[in-house]
Design a protein that fits this description.
By secondary structure, this protein is an alpha+beta fold. The chain contains four helices and seven strands; from the N terminus they run E-H-H-E-E-E-H-E-H-E-E. Strands 1-2-3-4-5-7-6 form a seven-stranded mixed β-sheet, with helices on both faces. Helix 1 crosses helix 2. The structure holds coenzyme A. The site of coenzyme A has 21 residues, from strand 4, helix 3 and helix 4.
Length: 181
């Protein structure tokens, strides 16, 4: 399914949102590496991200073939400046629930790109009748992300206390939030 900005786009932002293509593999791989290098609030550290461009292309191909998973990219003048991907447990009792992760490149944050990506993802989920629950994990000190999720309507369901240890000694909780589109 292709998604692009349109008059019915849930929010306005200066980017085009579409599904990732296999040909995005190299650029997406470089984008993800940059995100891990420039963001505090994710678990994976740059040295732990081992995927190269070839495996990234295969990863995108798998998303494209999976009926309940996707990878959305936000493009500004052809450059990837944002990304959102989801994953779904295929076991029957929980296959209605899908989890996602998202990011926007430094320099492009606070311009509505994150809200636009999330809005497109919610539309994508609504078009997939099997999916009725969207869930996410967010660190308790990630004020910006928490503000975005609350604004969209995600509810706090629970907290894993002291779940994440930062290298500088800070310890934060992991919030679990959910939304029923
Ligand atoms: C979280 C993230 C994806 C948000 O993307 P973004 O493009 O900056 O978000 P938006 O500009 O769409 O902002 C959406 C809402 O977030 C809130 N927000 C925006 N800037 C903010 C700021 N500086 N401080 C607090 N809240 C802010 C507002 O509620 C805003 O809505 P509004 O503009 O209508 O007031 C982005 O900050 C990011 O990539 N962070 C690093 C990776 C990360 O933490 N990912 C999430 C892991 S759970």
């Amino acid at each position: 399914m292709t998604v692009t900005n349109s008059a019915t786009s849930p929010t306005k932002s200066p980017v085009i949102i579409r599904e990732g293509k296999i040909s995005d593999g190299k650029a997406l791989n470089a984008y993800i590496r940059t995100i891990f290098e420039t963001t505090d609030h994710l678990i994976t550290r740059p040295s732990e991200f081992k995927m190269g461009a070839w495996r990234q292309r295969r990863w995108i191909a798998q998303k494209l073939m999976d009926p309940v998973e996707t990878c959305l990219v936000a493009l500004a003048d052809g450059e990837i400046v944002g990304m959102l991907d989801n994953w779904t447990d295929k076991r029957g009792r929980v296959t209605h629930a899908t989890c996602f992760s998202m990011s926007v490149k430094k320099g492009w944050r606070c311009k509505g790109v994150g809200a636009d990506l999330l809005g497109h993802f919610i539309q994508w989920v609504k078009a997939h009748k099997r999916l009725t629950r969207i869930e996410l994990h967010v660190h308790s000190d990630n004020k910006h992300a928490l503000a975005l999720y609350k604004k969209v309507g995600f509810e706090l369901e629970g907290t894993r206390k002291k779940a994440v240890f930062y290298e500088d000694g800070r310890v934060v909780d992991d919030h679990i939030m959910a939304f029923w589109p």
